[in-house]
Backbone:
């Protein structure tokens, strides 16, 4: 009887552990997809700022975003190939609408809309990257989030500072 009881306990432990591991893997995959989408969208909108910004500081910030988020996307692509995860290769519909909406603005109105968008997006990213760094299941993905976080925080502070200057 005790052998049966122990077998049942082991079976229950294996059964209950598997969904948790599966859930953690899905969470890591969702994080990678979100980060890739953000990189592509921010790089695209950053290019718009480089080309259409009214203020030289906005153009420079846009250029920095393009460089940093393009480089980050390349790192993500390499990481995803190592972990066996798939990441998006293009901007999704919702992010495309955000990028397309920026095309309607010009001059200082563009600058303000761009900085407002980047401030909001980078706030979300800071939160997501902190969560992944603290609670991610895959050590390589956690390390990536930890390494990328200071750059994202800098972008957030830069966007907020430029927004304060433009008001």
Residues:
């Amino acid at each position: 009887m005790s052998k049966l009881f122990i077998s049942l306990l082991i079976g229950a432990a294996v059964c209950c552990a598997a969904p948790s591991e599966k859930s953690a893997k899905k969470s890591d995959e969702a994080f990678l997809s979100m980060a890739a989408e953000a990189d592509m969208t921010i790089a695209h909108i950053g290019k718009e700022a480089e080309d259409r910004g009214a203020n030289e500081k906005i153009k420079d910030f846009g250029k920095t975003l393009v460089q940093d988020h393009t480089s980050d996307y390349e790192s993500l692509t390499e990481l995803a190939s190592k972990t066996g995860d798939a990441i998006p290769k293009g901007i999704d519909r919702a992010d495309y609408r955000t990028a397309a909406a920026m095309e309607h603005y010009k001059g200082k109105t563009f600058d303000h809309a761009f900085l407002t968008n980047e401030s909001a997006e980078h706030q979300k990213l800071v939160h997501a990257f902190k969560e992944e760094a603290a609670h991610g299941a895959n050590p390589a993905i956690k390390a990536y989030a930890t390494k990328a976080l200071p750059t994202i925080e800098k972008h957030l502070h830069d966007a907020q500072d430029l927004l304060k200057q433009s008001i």
